[in-house]
Write a structure and sequence with these properties.
Distance between the termini: 40 Å
Number of helices: 1
Radius of gyration: 22 Å
Strand content: over 45%
Oligomer: single chain
CATH class: Mainly Beta
Low-confidence stretches: none
Largest sheet: 11 strands, antiparallel
CATH architecture: Beta Barrel
Number of domains: 1
Length: about 210
């Protein structure tokens, strides 16, 4: 090995070591993301009226997350994270009158494992997988003013998603993400769908701070 190649190799090793050391000093992350929930239209079993479906709005939701890096290398990093999603107003509509509440609130908590690619660079892709629980609280009235017969429900949740972090300052990042919180179906006794679970797709953007 020539002297020039030797010093290039030394420079590469020192650069990688410095990047890993910096990453190890910043093991914690907090993020805030705003976005929308997307839930697919669902058919009502046994319905004979026009438009026998339950349609969901695009609920404006907020997600907060804390993560702790467990292992960091130049190519990938492994973190434990705790995403929490809150949807304060999910509007509903069904073809038949007074079959579903006019809206509900949803809350999901899903401790997860996350893998980041190229975690020490300015741009990092990541994927997340975890499980937890969710709770749905229904409005006491239907869209047409009748009493709602449905009840609040709590169920197990499977979370999986992916995202992109882009550094704009030393410790401040822009985050874009998409996650699916696969949770129990809301309790609609007058509008049965025959399903026990539904996907709650969340797509949003926000910021992440590393410290």
């Amino acid at each position: 090995m020539s002297g020039k190649q030797f010093w290039i190799a030394i420079l590469v090793v020192v650069t990688l070591a410095a990047a890993m050391a910096a990453a190890q000093e910043e093991k914690n992350e907090v993020s805030g993301v705003f976005g929308r929930d997307f839930i697919s239209t669902q058919g009502i079993q046994g319905a004979s009226f026009f438009d026998p479906n339950i349609r969901y709005g695009r609920g404006l939701s907020i997600e907060g997350s804390y993560a702790r890096r467990l292992f960091v290398a130049p190519i990938y990093a492994l973190s434990a994270e705790l995403p929490v999603l809150y949807n304060p107003d999910e509007d509903l509509h069904a073809g038949g009158q007074s079959l579903v509440p006019k809206d509900y609130t949803a809350f999901f908590v899903a401790p997860s494992a996350r893998v980041n690619l190229f975690p020490t660079t300015a741009v990092s892709l990541w994927g997340s997988l975890g499980a937890g629980f969710g709770h749905i609280s229904q409005n006491g009235s239907t869209l047409y003013g009748a009493p709602n017969l449905g009840k609040g429900t709590t169920s197990a949740v499977l979370q999986f998603g992916f995202g992109l972090d882009v550094r704009i300052l030393r410790r401040l990042y822009i985050r874009g993400e998409a996650r699916d919180y696969w949770a129990g179906e809301p309790n609609f006794p007058q509008a049965p769908t025959g399903k026990s679970r539904q996907s709650n797709f969340f797509v949003g953007g926000g910021v992440m701070w590393r410290f």
